[in-house]
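Exam revision sheet. Question 4 asks you to relate a sequence to its structure. Input first:
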Amino acid sequence: MAANDPNLNGMSSEAVANATGRTWSEWLAFLDDLGAGSSSHKEIVAVLAGPGGLSNGWWQQSVAIGYEQARGRRVVGQTSAGGFQVGVQKTLAIPADRAWDLLTGEAGRAIWLGETEDLKFRKGERYVTADGAWGEVRSVAPEERVRLTWCAPALAGPSTLQVTLAPSGGKTSVRFHQERLSSLEERELMRAHWRDVLDRLMEAARAGATPGEKASQ
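Answer key, structure tokens:
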């Protein structure tokens, strides 16, 4: 792997190579050779779904976005629909079941979502937080992910938030991915917010916080 291989779509070339079998530089060359430089996002995805490409839809989309960023056709963090997205992750030194309990219990929930009445993480459940955010749970896979709408006073409009857990040994990588942000300014605002949230979750995990404990503010 070349030392100057780019990082695109928030992912290192090494991570992309491990998942897809090609580095970012190799994917860029692959798509250039197939004339994708003037193609639409949908057309690039179709190329990636073809011979020599990728069978996984998520990776087709991710590589297409990275290609558009590399060729100056998309601002970093901008989605194909024109909005912006941000993803931040850190590893907690606890297993996935405990990480899930922390995130869905009172202590962790107050850190990342805000103080709410008792919230059941199930599809269709609505919530309102003490600081004025509100939304609805869209999907749940226990100990893996939760996806919800998130409307907050600091944002120009509604956004979509997904929290994903990826276990590794006795540790768990926790990722916050937020979509439908209205601007680069909102993207940077939320990047700083989720980094702070993850720092606080790491502290709670180290302190052994349990779902019934009150989160410190």
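Marking note for examiners. Residues 209-217 have pLDDT under 50 and may be disordered.
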